[in-house]
Amino acid sequence: MSNVPANLSYTKEHEWVLDSNGAGTFKIGITDYAQEALGDIVYIQLPKIGDLVIAGAVCGEIESTKSVSEIYSPLTGKIVAVNGDLDSKPEVINSDPYGHGWIAEIQIEGALPALLTPGQYAEITA
């Protein structure tokens, strides 16, 4: 069974969301379930700082030894930070998806979309 931290929100596409600062900036990444399904991650195409992203739209790509998958933005807003460490060490997503394996930070525009609670996400990944 995959790890589903209680302090995060989730999407059906297996991304997680963390309120970074209480001022509308949110850290995002892929879930433990997603990294496990992908297998060994070998490359990630990060969004660029300044990119405008839309909730539910593709904002990057992740490649593993098994497949290539799209990363969907869980929020609408502007990319204000990316995890540049993933350029040289994308495998960190496998070992620490909720910590050092974060992907980007988004400054949201407007209201937060409906996201899954940890309990709801755990149900769909059970």
List the helices and strands and how they pair.
Elements: E1 9-10, E2 15-19, E3 25-30, H1 32-38, E4 41-45, E5 52-53, E6 58-64, E7 68-72, E8 77-82, H2 85-88, H3 92-95, E9 104-108, H4 118-125
Antiparallel strand pairs: 1-2, 2-3, 3-9, 4-6, 5-8, 6-7, 8-9
Morphology call: globular
Total number of helical segments? 4
What would CATH call the architecture? Answer: Beta Barrel
Under the CATH scheme, which class?
Mainly Beta
Give, in order, the helices and strands.
EEEHEEEEEHHEH
Low-confidence stretches: none
Counted up, domains total 1
Summarize the main sheet.
6 strands, antiparallel
Report the portion of residues in β strands: 25-35%
Our Rg estimate from Cα atoms comes to: 13 Å
- Roughly how many Å apart are the termini? 7 Å
- Mean of residue pLDDT? 94
Helix content: 10-25%
Question: Which structural class should the secondary elements be placed in?
Answer: alpha+beta
CATH topology tier name: OB fold (Dihydrolipoamide Acetyltransferase, E2P)
CATH 4th-level superfamily: RNA polymerase II/Efflux pump adaptor protein, barrel-sandwich hybrid domain
Taking strands numbered 1, 2, ... along the chain, how are they ordered across the largest sheet?
Answer: 1-2-3-9-8-5
How many E strands? 9
